[in-house]
Amino acid sequence: MSSGHSRRAFLARSSFAVAGGLLGRAVHAAPRWRNAQEILVPARSTRAVASFAPPLADPATMRAMARTAIEAATQAGAQYADIRIGDVREYRSSTTNPQTLSFMYGFGLRVQVDGGTAFVGGVEPTPERVVQAARSAVATARGLAKIGGPAASRLPAPVATGEWTAPIQIDPFSVSPDDHMFVLSGLARVKSSLQPYGMDSVSVRWTAETRVFASSEGALVTQHLAHAVPDSAINIFARGTAEPRMLRGIPAFRPCTAGFEVLLGTALHEQLDAMLQEFLPWSTYPTSEVEVGRKEIVLAGRAFGSLIGGLLPPILTLDRALGNEQDAGGTSIFAPTDAMLGQPLFSSHLNLSVDTGEATYGRMQWDDEGVTPRSFPLIEKGALVDYLATRTNAQPLSAWHMGRGQPLTPQGSTWAEDVIGPPRSAPRAFAVTPAQGGPSLAELIQSMTDGLVFWDTWVNVDQQGAGGWITPWVAFEVKKGVITRRPRAARLEFSTKRLLKEIRVGGPNTVEAVYNERYSGIPWTLIGHAMSAPAAYLKEANLVAPELRIV
Amino acid sequence: MSNARREGTPDVSFLARRADRSSGPVGGSTSMRPPAAADAPRRVLTRAEAIALADAAIGMVTVPTVGVQVSHRAAAVASVTNNHQPHCDDIDELALNFVTRLGSDIPVIVGTNVRDAATLRQMIRNAEMKKTPPVRKEDQEDETDPDLPIKHALGPKQYLPVTLWHDSTTHAMETARGETLARMINVMHDAGAGARDLVMAGTVALTSRVRLCHYIHGMSAWGEGTDSEVTVSVRSQDGRASGWRGQAARDWTQMQPEQVVRDAVTMANKMRGAVRLEPGRYTAILGAAAVGQLVHMMADLFLARANRGGAGPFGLANSPDGHLLRLGQRVFDERITMYTDPNDPMGGDFPFFEEDGTPSGAQTWIEHGVLRALAYDPSDAMEYGKTPIKQPISMHVTGAGKLSTIEEMISTCERGVYVNRFSNVQLVDFKSGAMSGNTRDGCFFIKDGKIHSPVTNFRFFESPFIAFNKVLAVGTPERIAFGFTPPTDTSFGAKGFAGALETWPNPPVIVPPCMFRDFNFSALSDAV
């Protein structure tokens, strides 16, 4: 892209201003990696964002270091070793919050000696440092092997070599903060049409990473990754109160593997205008106290995506089902695995899969075990058919897959969100399949006699995923198919098995995407994923009010 | 001392020793032989080393700098799952944060591969270039002015002696994980027929850390502390019974890991055959861990700003005299006192000073049930004419009068529920302080003064701000362990940390077991 005036003209022609439809709620306020550096970036600078960070590490140097580390580990006696070296940076552009740039150059090394596994991570790797880390990790693993059980077996996988670059068109780090702001500030025009209401700030989190993976099996891969996480929702609120009145996602703008080009183009503008016209009246409904009791509930796509994203990935993680996280996040109601697989535990309308499609968030060519990711079902027509597993812990699933005539193969969804931490089973994107020919959101609402519509939600789940509660960010009351009021507060308590057995999903035009984060592992780390989900309907849910008052 | 650049090469040879030390064998030697105490390496900088590093670093910075904060943390974490799968993590994090005269700090992470002054200088230069705008000479203050206000604010200060460091813990970082895990596993194997179908997961975690605030006008605040936790979770293989126990102490010699395992096994065995109990309001006997989880979540509501005008449980709305806060009013049972003390022998507060070196003093928040203080950040304090008071991070809760053991509480209870601990506690309503969560790893029905039966878990919905007004009995305080249980909330801005190792250990929470009247166990929970 050319610089200065010509760049701005290019952006203006592309009608990017609608990027103003993004909600400025960062899902994670602090740098996302341990030991990351974070700096403030002047919003009006015309330098490229990348110029504010140190130069990227040379991938050839990273590969050489990775090979050195693996050699050191195997020479010290490791039966298996792998290493991830990552140079990652993240830019948060926002219309109101400070523009921040985080960067971290680190490594994570994992070794196995008999039944002992050790992990060492650090920042600013050098050849000497990674050699020392490899030797210390082997010594640790050897010591732990004396009290460990049998060595973990690893699912075989093709040895991966090569280099891959995410297919983006415009590197957001080559764009200046001034141009980022210019695009986002199109909100000013949108805001002015919303009087007397306001909209939150708009923000996008751009991430770019060069990651090298190498293993003692001979794998050596280099990936240049890129993704964008917008808070892809309009939050209309009453001025002076910040009370949210309406929350909607922009379908074309979702967590994705994309560059700056995703902010450009007219589709975003048209969608936002249409959505504002459609949903602005919703923000005028009177408020009221919620009537507690058993109600019908419709969850808009975003709300259902938040629910499923907060509920199912943790309890379908094999480590939790096997009890490996019982002293941390907890266990899983879907255990033991051999009793659960194949059972019709869910509504026959529910289909959940790991999604590795073209534009999905977190797209990569190899995961952190050197395996090419694949899409695969977790729930098929209501039956549990798989768990989220790594090459190391997947063996308990072997009998099940063999019984279905499928050899057990690696899922390719092992990932270390923070390269200086151990990799975990962490698919980057999930999808709930909508019902073909299923109802639209309007049809679902019209079918309700007495209930609530939730537009966006917070989810709290217990230690086993057996139940929890959902608190809506924005909700509307429906009587005989007509929206009547906005309840001030409400909370839906649910039992997981009953909720997911009775849920019905909407049609393709109700699908929305949302970004979730969850804690996983011991010690826990924060991992994120995108969830695409249609609207959902519950015939009967237990609605309670959350407020207690001190009199 | 001034901010003048130093010529010559400062002696930072301890950085090389740190690099060598952090790369050496960890997790216990392969022979499992513990080194003698005198040989146990100190993983974090000494005070002299930290001051030398601070002086050297200030001399390397080219922008006008007021001072530097040096933070060095080392931790060793080991865990075992399914009775025998051990795993280890080691951390060594050294960070400098330059406080400049330009309104922005310059943070520098000093990796373990930084071994000499030249490398350190380069890192500082890189950070400077990316962070600070050019400063014109006419914008710089005259540092020779003896009345410069900042010279008084950051001049020498007096600090009370605080004992948060224990050599026993640093020694244990080199030896305990391999040995301690082995002993804990052996306890499981030796637990007999009653434990044959039980599966243990446990974590042993130790840390040592130091912080130096070093300012060119004379203030130098130094804090060092150690900490350790052992947590064990035991479950039956049928997934229907579970038990948990944890222990935390700064001094490793106080820790009894094998007893922690035995207690967790005992709890799991007692939970076999749990039956359902009708939800509702019961007399609740909460173990210290459960009370601590509630108190831990109360900290945010000790901010004056969060309460003003009735916005929080300590606020007043529509008060005839115009007061907005309940300061001076009785808000809890008169037996309850809550305070923080940096020098608390049961926990203490690391570090015991603010980021600008201002000493943190002891603070009483609730005294015999009366609200004595709320926290004011500097801007709030300025607005309301108050002295800034730091928000409580650690908390010590005591009860006055006769203290009861849990057994004594049970003996006086006609009908109630004993809870070992909670899970997924979340604040759901700021105004009332209402919280919700689940019971976990030990829940029993009490009838006629005795444990009648184990019961399946409940969801609770209660405000501790109300519960502390319904106190029936209070026990002896103990420090509770949090372990590596993840936070409840991943939503924006809340607890925004990337991983457990950034935040562990939790600040000490020292609380007694308590007996409360009419505690709301709002629903049954299917979770075990």
Give your account of this protein's structure.
The complex is a heterodimer of chains A (551) and B (528). With 551 residues, chain A is α+β, with helices and mostly antiparallel strands. Chain A folds into two domains: 7-283, PmbA/TldD fold; 285-544, no CATH class. Chain A contains twelve helices and 26 strands. In chain A, strands 1, 2, 3, 4, 5, 7 and 8 form a seven-stranded mixed β-sheet that branches. Chain A has a six-stranded mixed β-sheet with strand order 15-14-13-18-25-24, covered by helices on one side. In chain A, α2 (59-76) runs parallel beside α3. The N and C termini of chain A lie far apart (63 Å). Mean pLDDT of chain A is 84; it is low at 1-29 and 547-551. Chain B is of the alpha+beta class. Chain B is 22% helix and 31% strand. Chain B has twelve helices and 20 strands. In chain B, strands 7, 12, 13, 14, 15, 16, 19 and 20 form an eight-stranded mixed β-sheet that branches. In chain B, strands 3-2-1-4-5-6 form a six-stranded antiparallel β-sheet. In chain B, β5 (220-236) and β6 (242-249) form a beta hairpin. In chain B, α5 runs parallel beside α6 (257-270). The N and C termini of chain B lie far apart (60 Å). Mean pLDDT of chain B is 84; it is low at 1-6, 24-38 and 491-496. The interface between A and B is large, with 95 and 96 residues. β4 (116-123) of chain A pairs parallel with β2 (85-100) of chain B, so a sheet runs across the interface.
